[in-house]
Structure formats: C-alpha cells, structure tokens
Specification:
The complex is a heterodimer of chains A (554) and B (188). With 554 residues, chain A is mostly helical. In chain A, 76% of the residues lie in helices and 0% in strands. Chain A has 26 helices and no strands. Chain B is an all-alpha fold. In chain B, 73% of the residues lie in helices and 0% in strands. Classes of the chains: A mainly alpha (554), B mainly alpha (188). At the A-B interface, α19, α20, α21, α23 and α24 of A face α1, α2, α6 and α7 of B. Chain B: One of its GO terms (biological process) is regulation of DNA-templated transcription. Chain B: This is IBH1-like N-terminal domain-containing protein.
Chain lengths: 554, 188
Amino acid sequence: MDVGEKDKYELEKRNDNSLNYQASGMSSAWQFGGSNLTSTPMSLVSSDNPLVIGSSSASASMGDSFCSNLWEHPSNSQNLGFCDINVQNGASSSNATGIGRGGPASVRGSIDRPFEMGWNASSSMLKGGIFLPNASGVLPSSLSQLPTDSAFIERAAKFSSFNGGNFSDIVNPFGIPEAMGVYARGVGLMQGPQDVYTISGIKSISGVESQRSKLITTEASRDLPAENRATQESPLKNERNGGSLVRSNEEAKQGNGGSGNESNEAESSGGAGGHEPSALDGTAGESSAKILSSKKRKRSVQEAEVDQAKGSQSPVEATKDGAENQQKVDQNQTTMVNKTTAKHGKQGSQASDLPKEEYIHVRARRGQATNSHSLAERVRREKISERMKFLQDLVPGCNKVTGKAVMLDEIINYVQSLQRQVEFLSMKLATVNPRVDCNIEGLLAKDIIQSRAGPSTLGFSPDLSVGYPPLHPSQPGLGPGGFPVMENNADIIRRTLSSHFTPMTGGFKEPNQLSNAWEDELHNVVQMNYGTSTASDSQEVNGSQPSGHTKVEL
Amino acid sequence: MRSPFSLKQEFLKKWILGLQRCRSSKKNMSIFERKKVIKLSADVAMASARKGTTCWSRALIADAVKEGNADKHLAEKILGPASERQPTKKVPVGAMAYNKRIRSKKILKRSSVIRRTIKCAPQAARPSSIVKTLVGKRRQILRSLIPGGEFMNGVSLIEETLDYIISLRAQVDVMRSLASASKLVNLN
C-alpha cells in the first residue's frame, strides 16, 4: 500500500497540476493560489462538480470537505496549487481558499479512483494541458464520464475518511484534471501557462466526478497515498515539478502493481506534467490559455483518443506505451491521452531512465494551441528547464531555490564570483612570483632534474619516488597524515601525466620536456591540495594503484 | 562528461606552456603586467582546453586576438604560431549568420516592446509577463557575463553556462593550489 500510496501521491501531484490548469480555465476570475493544501471534503467536490465547476460555491463546498483530508499533506505542492485554485474564486473568501486547497487533494483522491477505472474524458480534458507527460497515461484509463453526482459524493465521503495523503495519491493525473475542473481557480499562481489547463471547465469536472465514483471504490486507498507522496515530493515550483514528478512516477512505478500501473503512469505523467508546468512557466504569459473553454476540452478529448491510438504505436519508451494502453482502456477523455502522449514525448526528453528518441514526439496538450509554434515553444521550454536542473546541481545553494528568475540570479552571482576569484588569484600569483614563469622554476628547480626521468618513463616508480622526497620538505603544511595518500596520488598522477605527456614530448624541445616535468610536479603539488577526491579520480584513470601504494612505504 | 581531473591537467599544461611563451625580455615587468599575462594565459588555456567544442571558448579566444584588442600580440604569443592553434571550423559562416539573425531579432523585439509598453502598460501587471521580464533581464545579464553570450539562444545559453561554470571552477582550483604551493616554496 505504501507504494500505492506513493503513486497516489504522485497522481495527486499531477492532479494538482491539472487541476490548477483547469481551474484557471474555469474562471479567469479565479486566482491561483498557491501552496497550501486545504483539504476539502470530497463530498463537497463531488456535489459541486456536476453543478458548477467554476462556481465559487462549488469551491467552497469542496474546500470544506477536503480540508480535513488535505491538511495532512501540506507539502504537496500540487495540492496546494489546487487548493489555491479552488479557493481563489473571485468571490471566494478565506473559506474558499481553505476549501480550494483541500479540494484538490480530496478530489484527487476520489478522482484518481475513477480515473484508474477508466475515465478518459474528464481526466484527459483536465490533464490535457498540464500533465501532458503524466496525465496521458493515467488519466484516460481512469476517467470516465461521471454518471451521477451522488455517487461521487459517496466516494468523496469515503475519501474523506482516508488520510489526506491518500487523496493526493488518488489524484493521479487523471484525477487532477477533474480536480482541476473543480479547482481550476487555484492554478494561476502555480504556473502562468497553466491557464491553458483551466480550460477543462465544467464538463471535465463532471466527467471526472463520474469517473471518480467508479474508481473510488478500488483505487482510492492506493491512489491517495501515492498522490500524496507524489505531491509532496514535487516542489511547487515549476522547475522542480517536472523533476519531482518524474521521481514520483518512478517510485509509483516501482510501488504499484496492478491498478498501480495506472497510478504509476499517472505519476510518471504527473512527473512529466511537472516538467510541463515548469517549462510552461518559462513561456508564461499565455493568457490565451485562459480563454480556452470546454470546447477545447472536447477537442482535446478527441485528440487524446487519437493520441492514445498513436501513442501505442509510436515507439515511445515502454512506460509510455504502458500508459497509453491504459489510456486507451479508459478512453473517455481523449485529452488525457493528449497529455500522456505529450508526456511521453516529454519523458523522452526528460532525465528519466527512458531511452531517448531521435526527435521529441510532442502532442498538443489539452486546451493548448496546436500550431507548430506553440509546440516547438513547449519543447524548447522543456529543454531549458531540463538544463536548469543541471545547473541547480552545479551551483551551490540552488537546491532550495525555485523559480527561474531566482535561480538565474544565483547562477549570475556564482559566475561573477568565480570570475572575480580568477582575477584575484592571478593577481596573487603575480605578487608571489617575480617573473611570469618563475613560479614554475621555483617549484621545480630542484626536482626537475630528478623528475625529468620520471615523465619520460612510463610507470617508472623509482624515478617518481625519487621526486617525492624533494617535494616533501617544501610542503610541510600538508601534514604527515596526508602524505601517504598524497604520495599515492602523486605517483598515480605522475604516471598518468607521464602517459599523457610522453606523446607530447616527442615533438617538444628540451624546454618543453622540462615544462612537462614541471607540469607533473605541479600536478603533484596541485593534487596534494585536492586531497582524496582527486585521488579517486586519478586512481580511476590509472589502474596501477598497487605500485603507488607500495611507494608510500618507501 | 569530461572528468574534472583531466580538465585540470589539460588546463595546467596549456597554461604553463602559454606562460613560457610569454616570457618577456624585460625583467622588470610590473605587477599588473604580470597579472595580466597570467590571467590571459589562464583564460586562453582554459578556452583551448575545450578544443573549440563550446561557443564560449571560441568566443573568448576570438576576443583575445581580435583587432581592437590591446593585448592582441600577447594573446597571439600565448596561443603560439597559427599552425598550433585549435581549429575552429565550426564557428564560421553559420555562426556569423546566426549571430546576425539574433541581433536583428533582438532589435526588432526591443522596438516592438517599446511600442507595446507605450500602448498597454497595464499588461505588465500580469504575473506571467512580469516573470518573463524578470527572467529576460537576468538572461541578458548572464549573456553579458559569458564570453560570446550575446549570440546564444535560450537553450544553448544554459548549456554554455554549465560548461563555463565547470571550466571556471577548474581554473580557480588549479590557480589556488598553484598559489598555495608557490607560497610554500617561497617560504622555504
């Protein structure tokens, strides 16, 4: 169940995204809120969904029912997003906000179940815009037209009994679209481009709800935890969404079995969807998305169906195919398929384990313009967000930062500081050495003659070791403890360096050979400062470690 | 991905060679001249360590040897005779055309933005456009930091930044250890 819960979590996250997106579509007046999940009772959602997706009353009721559930998973960024959406109806008051937040989580929970059962229509519609990567797999399968609101209410009530996390799990990408429809309002803050998703509107919500009723019975428990995990894992920020969703998807995949597949895929799609939102943030300003109406959802639904068909055929990653299959099963909401296929395309480009395709197979997300420009724009944004993630790992202190602007700030500061360091160090070197190349001579004057033999002979340990003793006195600061390791490193370095340099020495004149020797020595010196970290590198480079070790004892 | 260890090796090797080549006849080089030589040779060495695969490295070397540069002769000396220079065949016509295209696009964008801002100021209040301008401004700053950054579009800018950061880090590490080592040597 844990795994299932995780899946649900992811689903919920995705659902959140979809909800957010759809919510914005629901009513432009709704403002996307942000971040905290307020659990809204599921019952509220269900009852409201069929009635009025965009209506504030719905959000209010939903919020109440879900509040209890969602509070437990505050970390779900996605849930939060949804909550905000719901809450933020133009007319919504603080209550609504609470409801909105709660709503998504709980709605998701209920939604996921139905989604897994086979809802396609609503979920696909909801998710179409946001979770293209994620939703496509999960949503279509689970979503089916919600037959009755009462059934949904019952499910919502059931979900409310689950802990909040479950709800999030249930939210699986398909669930999210439904929730999105309900909570469409909240999305705004999460991501600018999410406006597109808000399109889902009423129709999707009702569809979602019906599906939920179906799914609630089976998937609820599993979905909820998964979604909770998923939502919790994925940071609210766009940049993180994709990454976390992918991770959560992977987790979901591992955890869930059977119906878990759907949730897994939903999660993966959620993960991909996360990417999408992050990518979308870059594009932002897509106010046109808000304009999208239920009509688009219908269209997207149809597209989703088409996509599903195509998806299975396309040589996409295996996971994608699986997701697509599931989608087809549930094909009620083609939009979800759109999302999944889009997700697949994105998954291909994502940093997941899936193999890369030669070209990105991208489909228009639900509610998005399908002209080539916007598609290319989306692909471009996804690429950018992917690279930004790499930068996050590289730049220290960027892990907690979310948002492109702040991260770019950090990167700029880091680059500037590095450049200043280079200036300062070059000035320092200039002061230390009276001549430009004097430092080299000063360092290696004594050792050159001794070490010259070293570089010219590959792996000639005795020569290398001879070079060591002269170095030692010059580096008292290194400490006795560091020497054995450093000697090892130095030996290895010398050997590797000599192996590097001997090809070069052929064409070099005498001074160059000297410089090679100097470089070796300098490398040794440098390596000494690097410590064990470099030792591992050098050891990897040079396999003759034992000899190095033996030298230490000399 | 190239290992940082080999990158440092490469950089150090090239740097020392460059310094050797720059051995000035006058013995009393001022400290600033020395610093300039050291820094220039280090930058050029780091750029050439990339062997012309990245845009910033090519731009850096091109900047160093361009006509208007005061230290052009120095850079050329460091780089060595033309025969030894790294081939930069990727750069030529395509890049120039690309750069021109980008510049013209930017001019167009700027003019249209000015028109737009005059007409519809309230639109700036929308969160998405605010984010866009925030990000765009920072992108401009980043472009000014990275050598040759004006010619890169969004995706390649980030990639070049990645590579540039790695190279800078390696450069700083090598220089720092060299400085500390020479300090130790001088103490003895």
